[in-house]
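worker-3 :: picked Protein YOP1
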Amino acid sequence: MSAAQKVQQHPLVLQAQNKAKYYVDQLDKELTKYPVLNNLEQRTQVPKTYAVLGAILLLAILHTINPLAAPISNLVGWALPAYLSFKAIESPSPHDDVQWLTYWVVFGFFNFLESFALRLVLYYLPWYFAFKTIFIIWLQLPVFRGAQTTYLNVLKPVLNNISSQSRAVAPTTTTAEAPVHNE
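worker-3 :: tokens ->
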């Protein structure tokens, strides 16, 4: 028996293979819920689980190359939501309109904040764009309702606070009634 065969037959290697197969099977069950992935699997003959894991690995590799991290992150934040926003505009249901309008408000707000503090954030958190991409995906997926959660827990209180302060500071105008002349 060769050394390679001995390694392949080692109990720890067999246990790791069994665990990996279990997790791949579980992921495959979850991914079967998405018709797009089933269609992709039929057309390409590549198992959907491997396609998704490959896409995640590709994103991770692209995020390690820092000059590409920001454009990739922004592409993830723009491409699919733009397409789904166009579809939402054309659909009669208002639910998807709310999802994507809320997403764009939250996405725009965080990109605006990012423009002020990006260098500082990158200094302390070199993998910022990888985390941002995961955050963007969380915002996008209707299953998590990340955009609505962020809007209700972060943006709405901030906007309400700013709105109430601006009303308190804004001068009120009073109009004096002109005297009525009786003839």
